[in-house]
Amino acid sequence: MASKLPTQLATARSLDSHGHHSKPKPSSLSWRTTLSSNGVVPSPLTSSNLSFNGLPKRAVLPVVRCSGAAVNLGPGTPVRPTSVLVVGATGTLGRQVVRRALDEGYDVRCLVRPRPAPADFLRDWGATVVNADLTKPETIPATLVGIHTVIDCATGRPEEPIKTVDWEGKVALIQCAKAMGIQKYVFFSIHNCDNHPAVPLMEIKYCTEKFLQDIGLTHIIIRLCGFMQGLIGQYAVPILEEKSVWGTDATTRIAYMDTQDIARLTFIALRNEKINGKLLTFAGPRAWTTQEVITLCERLAGQDANVTTVPVSVLKLTRQLTRLFEWTNDVADRLAFSEVLTSDTVFSTSMTETYDLLGVDPKDIVTLEKYLQDYFTNILKKLKDLKAQSKQSDFYI
């Protein structure tokens, strides 16, 4: 059933008017919810509720309430299926999702935080930009008016507590989406998140998956392994600039994927009604260790890397020390990934069934070798051209 625009408008007003929150009560992290006439509220705690293993009890999230009056409004103008809201649109994945959506003819609205430097590139592409903040639930409802599908690419900034955006903000967003009749919600998670409850971000991703499944929204959950784009700043650029490349002695393997491919497969899944409610995992053609990635970059750059190896044991010790102080807890949460590095986990999975489900040819998926080869070819050509221009200038001087 198509959602109705007047209903969404009335619900948005009601959500705004109930933006105040009661004082939070201590509890464990929980995805359990119950629907009431006042909206979506957390249910009483049960033994099945999740909590951060070994970490202090977390607070119950602020509840975004809406009055029941909006439900009784008459039918209105159906919301177009091509209207999408991209949350986290300025990020590595989010901007590729926006670009793909516009190329495929979607009406794209981007939710971005107010910032000194506005996201003008999104407007230049043809998207509509609206300011809101997931940490301020009262700013969310207005961004959902007239929206059919929410694509959630957001994650917290490095300087923020992990749970602020990735748990509390996401719960508020999902509650608002449910209350306002959003027709579909796409959530990006992390592969193997259900196997690492000691890593806060991965446990939060798993809890958010469960919360989304239980709340009753039509949804698609996509677990990701790693982005190829992240390797440029981490390895390729430092090698070209003859700077130190930081790595670990871990043997963890990651099947990196081009975010453009992730965006393309996401919209194929979005158009396939048979995929509603499913959990998919997107992985690149091959899983790589850190050392293998560095070796590949060295070969393509034609020069050796200055590698500084940090033993995983040092990262684990650092995490234990930072957990001793409240003001360094956020650092400890992010260093928790050292637990993943020592587990010899392979962040990859067979894509055969997913390719068949989506009707995608595996040959159309970019390999890491091809991605990095294109990058180094282009950047080395530009450096060569700049060097030639410099020589011409010297000649005329």
TrEMBL record:
<feature type="region of interest" description="Disordered">
    <location>
        <begin position="1"/>
        <end position="33"/>
    </location>
</feature>
<dbReference type="GO" id="GO:0015979">
    <property type="term" value="P:photosynthesis"/>
</dbReference>
<feature type="compositionally biased region" description="Polar residues">
    <location>
        <begin position="1"/>
        <end position="11"/>
    </location>
</feature>
<dbReference type="InterPro" id="IPR044256">
    <property type="entry name" value="HCF244-like"/>
</dbReference>
<dbReference type="InterPro" id="IPR008030">
    <property type="entry name" value="NmrA-like"/>
</dbReference>
<keyword id="KW-0602">Photosynthesis</keyword>
<keyword id="KW-0934">Plastid</keyword>
<protein>
    <recommendedName>
        <fullName>NmrA-like domain-containing protein</fullName>
    </recommendedName>
</protein>
<dbReference type="GO" id="GO:0009523">
    <property type="term" value="C:photosystem II"/>
</dbReference>
<dbReference type="InterPro" id="IPR036291">
    <property type="entry name" value="NAD(P)-bd_dom_sf"/>
</dbReference>
<dbReference type="Pfam" id="PF05368">
    <property type="entry name" value="NmrA"/>
</dbReference>
<feature type="domain" description="NmrA-like">
    <location>
        <begin position="83"/>
        <end position="333"/>
    </location>
</feature>
<keyword id="KW-0604">Photosystem II</keyword>
<dbReference type="GO" id="GO:0009536">
    <property type="term" value="C:plastid"/>
</dbReference>
